[in-house]
Amino acid sequence: MIRALLARLGSLAAVMATVSFVTFGFVSLTPGDPAHTILREQRQSPPSEREVAAFRAEHGFDEPFVVRYFSWLGDAVRGDLGTSYYQSEPVTSLLVEHLPNTLELALAATAVALVVAVPLGVVSAVHHETWIDRTGQIAALVGVSMPNFWLGYLLILVCSLRLGVTPVSGAGTLSHLVLPAITLGTGMAAVITRLVRTSMLEVLEAEYVTAARSKGVRERLVVYKHALRNALVPVVTIVGLQFGFVLNGAVVVEVVFQRPGLGTLLVDAIFARDYPIVQGVVLVTAFAFVVTNQLVDLAYVALDPRIERGGGGDDRR
């Protein structure tokens, strides 16, 4: 157990080190001098060479890449992600301020996806090769094909501007969360629906399901008590992976609905060349993605203990 835990922590550290290096490298390779850009925006006039030199020295731009990277990495390990060039606030404080809105949106979108996808996938499998199944497959295909930004603007046009039932943008109330959660959760719901359907079709053909039916167990109990739990084992993995993608997709959705989360913070920082914020957002998002995957592995074992024992077979009960 201790060895497995150390292995997981080691893989987590390796992934985060790689992400930090790649992110810092790409930011450093960005064309243009951020000192000139930032000082020009702050002073509304071209900066002097002395001001540029002072800015570069203050933020370490005159140091070699390796020195700057390890200096930033050492501070990041201690929880110091630097200071925003424009807002002059610690990046950590800005992340703490904006992260709750992004997590709220990601969790709401995941809840919407599960509420829609699991029943739809089960019903499609139970009514295999009927009009119900084909309707569910078409709905899943449409959901996975629609871009988030297009669906978001469509929902704003219909629900906010035409019907006036939801706010156009912002955050703070449940009504502000409805449209962004539906927008972000639709694609995830489509993916999960197709997986639940496929997994249920496989489980419903298993021998223990046939045995339960032959004993006269009611079909509802066969589907929802015996088959569904085993069918959800692979779904847990895709839900965990999709949650990581949902965090990334929140960037687009937050911009569309002007929600004050990590997405809008990142986009504003990119346009402003506020590199400490860009690096901080990417690092936090990557950390959340990796931790989610680790939690998914643990949940996978909890649902199917044979995975931990290395067992196999189809005698799931």
UniProtKB/TrEMBL annotation:
One Gene Ontology CC term in the entry: plasma membrane
Keywords, sorted A to Z: Cell membrane, Ion transport, Membrane, Nickel, Transmembrane, Transmembrane helix, Transport
UniProt cross-references to PROSITE patterns, sorted A to Z: ABC_TM1 (PS50928)
Residue ranges of every copy of the ABC transmembrane type-1 domain listed in the record: 99-300
Source taxon at top rank: Archaea
Main location: membrane
Chain segments annotated as transmembrane: 12-30, 105-126, 138-165, 177-196, 231-257, 277-303
Membrane topology classification: Multi-pass membrane protein
Localisation per UniProt entry: Cell membrane
GO molecular function, one term: nickel cation transmembrane transporter activity
Family, similarity comment: Belongs to the binding-protein-dependent transport system permease family. OppBC subfamily.
Protein's name in the database: ABC transporter inner membrane protein
Organism: Haloterrigena salina JCM 13891
